[in-house]
Amino acid sequence: MHDLGLAVVHHVLVFGLAIMLAMELAYLRADPVPVTRLAKLDGGYGAIAVLVLIVGVVRVVWGAKGWVAYEGNPWFWAKIATFTVIGLISIMPTMRFIRWSRAFKADAGFRPPAAEVAKAAMWVRIEVLLLFPLVGFAAAMARY
Question: Would the pTM count as exceeding 0.85?
Answer without folding.
Answer: yes
